[in-house]
Write a structure and sequence with these properties.
- It is a single chain.
- The protein is an alpha/beta fold.
- It has 2 domains: about 160 residues, Rossmann fold; about 120 residues, N-(1-d-carboxylethyl)-l-norvaline Dehydrogenase, domain 2, CATH 1.10.1040.
- Helices cover about 50% and strands about 15% of the residues.
- The strands form 2 sheets. Strands 3-2-1-4-5-6 form a 6-stranded parallel beta sheet, sandwiched between helices. A 3-stranded mixed beta sheet has the order 7-8-9.
- Strand 8, helix 7 and strand 9 form a beta-alpha-beta unit.
- Helix 1 crosses helix 7, helix 8 crosses helix 10 and helix 8 packs across helix 11.
């Protein structure tokens, strides 16, 4: 293995673009592709080559990293890239694809001789831009040294979870907590307003105790100060993840009422025009008759 790698990043949305920049900062050669090329073009200023097709991005790459919307989108893009993929290429799959989606992607990798790593990340826009994500990584131990420089570039910490699939299972569990906390934050603020309670009184009440959370205060601040754009994690994407969590529960005999309610709140917020705002904008789902309450 050489010290520096050629890394292809497929999907340059909020997370993919930040991860591409972090990898380039470490001196690796980075090629990037996005379905809407205009969204990838700013990466050229960071020394990243922007390509017109997935195949052009992956040709000769040591590592291919996918950070797309969902499993089907990832499968389609990898099929487009297939003519330029060589057997033995390492594929780092970071899209939150769900269990069924991940199984299909792992099958595609096995069929075409790709070395598959299941590697979703924890963190949002700011830690991604700073290269401070937490990488959850499952895959073949024999190839860890190949992917370690990529994980070190994008993350402050790599949690090795075992075989491919184990990282996605842990990510779904973690996201179920994130979504529940986000929904609860919005409801606390909505109920405070409805009952004429100053939210600051609530925050004073829980300050320093076991009910206090930095995440609660951060998301509440976004809502109260109207700082919902640009999104750290968008309502539309969070709704997709919530549906994947509910499905994973159903498929394994567990009823997840809070996750289902979170999915419904996020979907209502999206219908009210907040799909591209931070997921804290699920707050507006409490006011279906008055979306700007």
């Amino acid at each position: 293995m050489t010290d520096k790698l050629t890394v292809s990043v497929l999907g340059t949305g909020i997370m993919g673009a930040a991860m591409a920049r972090s990898i380039a900062r470490e001196g690796h050669t980075v090629r990037a592709w996005n379905r809407t090329r205009d969204k990838a073009e700013p990466l050229a200023a960071d020394g990243i080559t922007v390509t017109d097709t997935p195949a052009a991005a992956v040709e000769g790459a040591d590592v291919v990293l996918t950070m797309l919307y969902d499993g089907p989108a990832t499968h389609q893009v990898m099929r487009e890239a297939l003519p330029a993929l060589r057997a033995g290429t390492v594929w780092v799959q970071s899209t939150t694809a769900g269990l069924d989606g991940l199984g299909e992607l792992a099958g595609f990798a096995a069929e075409h001789g790709l070395v598959f790593f299941d590697a979703p990340v924890l963190g949002t826009r700011q830690p991604a831009e700073a290269g401070q994500l937490t990488v959850l990584a499952g895959g073949p131990e024999a190839h860890r040294l190949t992917v370690a420089p990529v994980f070190d570039a994008v993350g402050a910490r790599t949690v090795w979870t075992g075989e491919a699939g184990s990282a996605t299972r842990l990510k779904l569990v973690a996201n179920s907590w994130v979504l529940a906390a986000t929904a609860a934050t919005g409801e606390v603020l909505a109920l405070s307003g409805a009952l004429g309670v100053d939210p600051d009184r609530f925050f004073e009440l829980i300050a320093g105790g076991p009910l206090d959370m930095g995440y609660l205060r951060a998301k509440a601040g976004l809502i109260r100060e109207g700082r919902l754009s640009p999104a750290s994690f968008a309502v539309g994407t969070a709704a997709k993840d919530a549906r994947l969590i509910v499905q994973a529960g159903e498929d394994n005999g567990v009823r997840l009422d809070v996750a289902a309610a979170s999915a419904a709140r996020l979907e209502r917020a999206a219908e009210l025009g907040h799909a591209d705002e931070d997921m804290a904008a699920a707050y507006f789902a409490s006011f279906p008759e008055n979306p700007e309450a």
